Amino acid sequence: MNVKGTVFVTGKSAISAVFGEDRWNAFVARIAERDSYFKNIIMSITLIPVEKFAFFIDELIREFFNNDKKQYITFGKVAAKFALSPGGPYNSYLLSKDLKFLVESAIPKLWTTYFDSGILTTKLENNVIHVKISGIPIKHVFFEYLFAGYIQKGLKMFGKKAVEKCVRGFSRGDDDIYYQYELQD
Q1: CA distance 56 to 38
Q2: pLDDT, mean of residues 11-34
Q3: Same domain as 96, residue 130
Q4: Is the domain of 172 the same as that of 96?
């Protein structure tokens, strides 16, 4: 499984905006000393092996967020804002105003934008959105929290409020991820 460089590039942009480019560059230099993969230029089209990405994201959380894994939710929200805002590469998904299209077509497509493996399925049933993710070779909480944050922000940008419920997740020791979002009026 590979993680597309878009996640790295978005992270670089967000971290640099908050902590400064010099601190980002120093961080990347330190991790490149431990893993030479990060001496390479990583662009949005770069396919990063999932093991390398897990190392990178864990170090990033340690360095900038006191090892608070819940910050992956924030990453998901930042990624959604970047991608779905006017001028963002996937803003057209929000223009349809069709919730069923957003849930059952757009969200699974967004998964494949960032990851080349794993299966994300979604279903809108009455006022509940079901999101399931399986087939991920590394049971890393990043995948769970990133997409939870992404969906939270995406629904808000779409004009919907939802109550999130984790049914299964890597954070609980499960082998897959299953979240429900109950839409509020």
Answers
A1: 9
A2: 93
A3: yes
A4: yes
Q: Which domain holds residue 166?
A: 90-184
Which CATH number covers residue 128? Answer: 3.90.1520.10
8-state DSSP, 115: B
Model pLDDT, residue 31: 96
> What pLDDT, on a 0 to 100 scale, did the predictor assign at position 89?
85
Taking only the tens place, the pLDDT of each residue in 135-178 is 999 999 999 999 999 999 999 999 999 999 999 999 999 999 99
User: How many domains, in total, are found in the chain?
Assistant: 2
Q: Which of 85, 94, 3, 74 is nearest to 45 (CA)?
A: 3
CA torsion, points 92, 98, 99, 104, in degrees to nearest 10? -70
What is the residue-averaged pLDDT of the chain? 93
Strands 177-184 and 161-168: antiparallel
Say which residue the tokens 């805002």 belong to. Answer: 85
* Consecutive H or E run containing 124: strand 119-125
